Amino acid sequence: xxxxxxxxxxxxxxxxxxxxxxxxxxxxxxxxxxxxxxxxxxxxxxxxxxxxxxxxxxxxxxxxxxxxxxxxxxxxxxxxxxxxxxxxxxxxxxxxxxxxxxxxxxxxxxxxxxxxxxxxxxxxxxxxxxxxxxxxxxxxxxxxxxxxxxxxxxxxxxxxxxxxxxxxxxxxxxxxxxxxxxxxxxxxxxxxxxxxxxxxxxxxxxxxxxxxxxxxxxxxxxxxxxxxxxxxxxxxxxxxxxxxxxx
Length: 247
Description:
Layout: E1 2-5, E2 20-31, E3 34-45, E4 49-53, H1 60-68, E5 75-80, E6 87-89, H2 103-108, H3 112-115, H4 123-135, H5 151-164, E7 169-173, H6 181-196, E8 200-204, H7 208-212, E9 216-221, E10 224-229, H8 231-234, H9 237-245
Parallel strand pairs: 1-5, 4-8, 4-9, 6-7, 7-8
Antiparallel strand pairs: 2-3, 2-5, 9-10
């Protein structure tokens, strides 16, 4: 397995094209005793929104974890450009409701990659946190405990933490699941605006309405990549029926 960043040494793996932020080839990954991804080959376009779609167990979260660097592939090639680490926003349920953190403290954790958890934040760090809070419309919630928030407010706090990392690669696992239409719309508009600003956004989702609004789509089935391309080309009635009827 090869994982390479920016200017990799010579390798038999293909080099990134100018429009690709990430490219992976014959990627395999999973968990002890449970392989999930099986020889997946695809790419993530730069400065665009990409959705990972598929049934439960198809490999969406595993692929997202590999792209985030929190799951180590067992084989295959992964190439990505950009010098900053990805910002990864897990599912809401992965963050405990009982953590004694305010919204501001939660977002400040996004600066730990720059400062470490024990160093004081600089004026620039605080300004970055303020910007992230404002962009998600939760500045007035900064002093509230994370566990006191509604689902939509809490999800916006987690996304603000990702924004505070100032990465050009934002990875989100089911960011709009269980949210009301207004919260889904707000988050969708933000992700579209981030892509327009040059951020590469990748999200796993079950929401076909969200998926059809993206720039690119990877349709997963049983750990394999069934289709990839623009959503209107991938999310056809025949393709969705084939993938879901195979369960």
